[in-house]
Amino acid sequence: MFLDFLFGRKISGKTISVETRNNIDRDWKNIQVLLSSKGPSQLRQALITADKCLDNALRDIVAGETMGERLKNAETRFDRDLYNKIWEAHKVRNNLVHESGYEPPYFVVTQSVDSLKIGLQTLGINI
Predict the structure, then answer these.
(1) How many C-beta atoms surround the C-beta of residue 95 within 10 A?
(2) Which band of pLDDT confidence, cut at 50, 70 and 90, is reported for residue 27?
(3) How many domains does the chain have?
(4) Which terminus of the chain has a smaller tally of CB atoms within 10 A, N or C?
């Protein structure tokens, strides 16, 4: 157990690296600053960064070329409700990045970030 803490949490034989954990910790501090500003562009950036954090953690523990593939391969690591919320958050992120003029309401962005945070916590990352 102590070694899991020291070197990253083991999940079904795969480990989230210390480097990934440190990057997520750093990024999450930035996400908190972005969320506190409540500006539309800051909220968008917070969601994009939160999605990237979960993707980086999944990259360490499951196979897949894209975030979508990694999410599909990680389905059993989350309960059904959380898994669906993570997918919805990822779709909101994709719409932000790929659809011109897409402006989701404040609560959609903040709920999406919360779902991604819970996903990270479920994987054993304390943020």
Answers:
(1) 13
(2) very high
(3) 1
(4) N
Written as six digits, the tokens of 121 are 């916590």
At 29, list the tokens.
């501090």
> Residue 58's CB: how many other CB atoms inside 10 A?
25
Neighbours of 100 (CB within 10 A): 4
- Report if pTM > 0.85: yes
**What are the distances in angstroms from CA 7 to CA 18, 26, 91, 116?**
6, 18, 32, 23
For 27, the token pair is 């990024």
Whether the CB-CB separation of 23 and 56 falls below 8 Å is answered with: yes
What was the pLDDT predicted at 4?
42
Asked whether residue 127 is assigned to any structural domain, the reply reads: no
Kind and range of the H or E run holding 62: none
